[in-house]
Amino acid sequence: MRAHPGDYELVAPGTLPAVLSLLAQEPGGWLPIAGGTDVMVQYAAGELPARKLVSIWNLPELRRIEVLPNEIQIGAGCTYTDLREHEVVSREFALLPIAASWTGGIANQNRGTIGGNIVNASPAGDSLPALMAYEAELILVSIRGERRVPYTSFHIDYRKTRLAPAELVRAVCLERRFSEYQGYARKVGPRRAQAISKVCLAALARLGDGVVEDIRIAMGSVAPVPLRLRETERIVRGQRIDPPLVQLARRTAAAETRPIDDIRSTARYRAAVGGNLVAEFLGRLSAGKIKG
């Protein structure tokens, strides 16, 4: 059953303070909508439960990418196209533009926002593993002010987050400290883009004299939330990469995942592919086939 536009109310206050004031007046009563790439799919299918929508599209405070000496702050309203075209993001945080290129077609990339991908809280969100690997922080804003939260703890269950009813994500903060890391990203799905991931991976590693000094591995579509593979990281960190270590990491990664069977894939397949992607990452890392 299709939705009827007369059943919905849409307002566009035009400024961030006005939006926050509206949210504070009726916490949980208004659904913020930015690019609308997820919301409009629900609306078209008659499955959008919210009846009161507030537009945050193109608010100047949410569309900035600020490059500071120690970090970069990406406004939550920045689109995937913004991420792909920004020089510093592409040079220092290359996993994000790669993930952005997977997200739908050009039209979706021109409208979809990084904040929307975060708050939508789908474990299959393409950009989310990259944010975990970079250990991003989120600036959350409300009429009471701002607070920072680590992105690694933002998702608490399937489509549930630490965002309060009257809060918005204002920006994503990334420390500028990954110049010595090598990054790798892969998406497994029916197509490279315009398809929901069956499994996606974002990984970073820093080597010193052939030893893995630091490593971060994150996956999507393998658990109710985007997942950091902490145990896999632990067994690899401080080691030289050799075939036995790669096989141990493959098994550990598969065991760390918590996938489900659904219309797109099976839990067994996802666990196996997750392990294979980790093994692929380590194999390419040891062979020097990943560029920094």
Describe what you observe in this structure.
This protein is an alpha+beta fold and 292 residues long. The model has no long low-confidence stretch (mean pLDDT 93). The chain is globular, with a radius of gyration of 19 Å. The chain has three domains: 5-55, Uridine Diphospho-n-acetylenolpyruvylglucosamine Reductase, domain 2, CATH 3.30.43; 61-175, Uridine Diphospho-n-acetylenolpyruvylglucosamine Reductase, domain 3, CATH 3.30.465; 182-286, Enolase-like, domain 1, CATH 3.30.390.50. A five-stranded antiparallel sheet has the order 4-5-10-6-7. The protein has a four-stranded antiparallel sheet with strand order 11-12-13-14, with helices on both faces. The protein is built from eleven helices and 14 strands.
Helix content: 25-40%
Rg from C-alpha positions? Answer: 19 Å
How would the global form be characterised? Answer: globular
Q: Which spans have pLDDT < 50 for at least 5 consecutive residues?
A: none
Strand order of the largest sheet: 4-5-10-6-7
| Helix and strand run | EHEHEEEHHHHHHEEEEEEEEEHHH
Structural class: alpha+beta
Whole-number count of domains: 3
Structure summary, number of beta strands: 14
Strand content: 15-25%
CATH architecture type of the largest domain: 2-Layer Sandwich
CATH class of the largest domain: Alpha Beta
N- and C-termini, Cα separation = 49 Å
Major sheet attributes: 5 strands, antiparallel
CATH fold category name of the largest domain = Uridine Diphospho-n-acetylenolpyruvylglucosamine Reductase, domain 3
Query: If helices are DSSP runs of H or I spanning 4 or more residues, what is the number of helices?
Result: 11
